[in-house]
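Minutes, project check-in

Agenda point 3 was the complex the collaborators sent over. CS summarized: two entities, 725 residues total, and the question is how they sit relative to each other. Sequences were read into the notes so everyone works from the same version.
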Amino acid sequence: MSSRDVVLARVRRALADVPRGEGPSDPPVPRDYHRVHGSRTTAQSVELLAENLAEYRAIVHRSDAEGLPGLIHRLLAERGARTVVVPPGLDASWLDPAWRDPSSESGSDVTLVEDHASSTPYELDAVDSVLTGCAVAIAETGTLVLDAGPDQGRRRITLVPDHHICVVRVPDQVVGSVPEALPRLAPERPLTWISGPSATSDIELDRVEGVHGPRTLEVILLAGSREAG
Amino acid sequence: MSGTYLGMPAFPRAAAASTRDKQLRANLTHATHTIRDKRAKAVAELDDWAQLRAAGAAVKDRTLRHLDHYLEQLEAAVTAAGGQVHWAADADEANRIVTRLVRETGEREVVKVKSMATQEIGLNEALAEAGIRAYETDLAELIVQLGDDLPSHILVPAIHRNRSEIRDIFRREMASWGRPAPAGLSDSPAALAEAARLHLREKFLSAKVGISGANFMVAESGTLVVVESEGNGRMCLTLPETLISVVGIEKVVPTWQDLEIFLQLLPRSSTAERMNPYTSTWTGTTDGDGPQTFHLVLLDNGRTDTLADTVGRQALRCIRCSACLNVCPVYERAGGHAYGSPYPGPIGAILTPQLRGMAGPLEASLPYASSLCGACYEVCPVAIDIPEVLVHLRERVVEGGPVTRGGARTVLKPAKGHAAERAAMRAAAWAFDHPGALRGGMRLAARSRRLHPRRLPGPGRAWSQTRDLPAVPAESFRDWWQRTRGTSSEQRGDVK
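CS then shared the predicted structure for the full assembly.
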């Protein structure tokens, strides 16, 4: 008898009290909890997202499509970032045109790094910043969800660099609550839910921001744009 | 502390020592009170908490009642998504499977995400015997590992250490495990977190094998979920080439939608946050992103025995949030080590005796490690009635009775040391069944009350050492009632 059979047989013996007619979807689960807490206009949801992001020490910026490349450039410059890794499907209009043409005379102080399947974690560790979009943002919890889509890339690129700039298209990508977020996400994709920069409460249960994940999380709420694709 | 729970003394002996440790009590009081208040605030933000709690309990109960179905569904989904599923009936088997899987990669080092299941089975020790070094990467687990210590809290295993103790451990031990602590390390939590970041960086970047547990497993999609704060989880789950997850069979939930309940209940109950900094979900393997080999080891190790007890099975709903530890007056004073297992506090007092059986003195003592105040039940996000299970297990200890061990029905003998209690209870039952004898006995007690000792003799001595014996009144209630208002029931001819 395999261990699989042993364990399953034990489970079945242990459940001798469960009536034969009871199916796996019995007994019913009461789902009378709220789909979303409180009622908000779209603008209020975006506002709440910004508030909750900030409360967990993410730095929140707002921009329109026109100002976005300039803002991103400024954020990188202020940090002194020399290299920034971007996912392959990032919206090209987000980037300063000068970066895309390394031979350009006007040039840029920031070098774009493309993520390759063959690049090692060490190579990523040498990169200063990462710039991505996201799949969904949750207002009530201040959470960004990345689903490894074309404008988000492999999970590791938003993990190893110490500085993450994440662009959220508002209001399209903003949902109110966790129950509203899950139906918009595909379980077969690898997901990373991010609520503020990495943190720990392991010393005296005091929250400290900044451990292994990016220690600086900047979120740009990009207004008035439709979701890509 | 030797890094193992083997041969731990029964709870009263361990607690007698730990309650005298003033530093420990100060550390625990500070930490548990801080988190207690924060949790209450985070929970109060959701006006449907009671409904979420009921739904969480209902999902877990439903899953447990059809666990065989959901485990098979999960296995099929994980396999279809490119994962390999292994089954382990007990700790030894799980350790053998993981050791073999690591050996097959040819690696001698693994990085670990904090995992209760691997603590429970003693995986690190088993790997060490096979010449494989396991690096704990959660900050608190790192503190415990460097200090050759044992975890004392589910969420914050080093809760018994304060910041200056942690700094001393880092200064002393980091060098022998890898990058030494920075010179002049201070005891500010930020500096200590930075030291951990530097120490572990190299390990993450070079790791080829990661080992994790999981908070949830979704049966319909085969998705595993790990909830964390530091990013060490993400490092272990995404950078290595091979990922091995050891997960208790009770961690399965039926649907993707069910996560909407638990991802609201868990962070608020455990770290008192609206959402923890990082949650990772993965389904099998993904081409070009993350580990290309994924093994899931499904662990029984006493869970099916727990499932067989219709009262005790509710302990398997536990989502390891640790809210019950933080409110428990006994935990706050005794500390986590006294519970003699990776599961301390109220949940440990009902989980450990059920997972391991109650034949040993430690396990038999754990159901008594509680004042039955009920605070644990109040805060439990999946409504485990811990006091109910404690009382149920106490009855098992005193009376013995049918239990399931290793999947086989057996009869537990009454524990030693409870003979006097059993005799007293039998005498009381007989007396309450014989009204004449009860009346005679109470009158005798009332008339002889000047002669009563202040301490009990014989086996009752220990009990009355810390308690005053109740004073016997001059007249029993029954006599008083008959004398003042009642008439004799025999005269009225009605029921006794």
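Noted in discussion: Chain A touches chain B through 78 residues (CB under 8 Å).
Follow-up: revisit at the next meeting once the mutant set is ready.
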